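We treat protein structure as text, and this decision shapes the records that our systems exchange. This encoding replaces a full spatial description with a residue-level series of whole-number codes. Below, we set out a record of this kind in full and without editing:
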Amino acid sequence: MPEITVWTKQNTAVLEQLGSRGRFVADEKYIRRELGDTAPVMLYIYRWLADHVPIAGEKPADTVYPVWVSFFKEATMMPEPGYTILELKLDTDAVAAVDIIKWTQITNYSYLPSDEEDEKAHRRLLDDYGIDDARAVMTQFYPEIRNKIIHSWDRLFDPVPEPGDPGTYGIVWEVRKEWVQRVIT
């Protein structure tokens, strides 16, 4: 099976977990700590991602959230005190590529249009109601628009981005000790 090298920035506590357990999986309590006040909003989106990513069927039973990786060392966030960058080598099939521009739109609770006309029609709909995407998704008052927006997120993987394409990051379900090629502090 072909292999790929990726990088991930993680709290240094991950190294301890790799040493003691041989693997690391994202834990909600740490995600909450990292995301602070935005955690409830982001965890909803991360759960959606976990259920819809092309590798969803490969998710280990003890895993809920994915771990983000970069296909380019230069695109990995800079190390800072308390964090480290792990260089990983793993099977290409273990990584799902994510279009980061579309992902950013989802993190803003935005609609992912199928084309320019669809985008215009959606904007007209929002204008008619005097709302924006985030308000439609985050309140109970616009269930049909909310469902339309969330359903549009399926376009995150349409077309399926390739690992290494510019503007893509990746996700994996776990980090295994044997994947670690180098630790950068």
Remarks:
- The mean pLDDT is 92.
- The two ends are 30 Å apart (CA to CA).
- Strands lie at 3-11, 23-24, 67-70, 83-91, 96-99, 168-172, 175-176, 180-184.
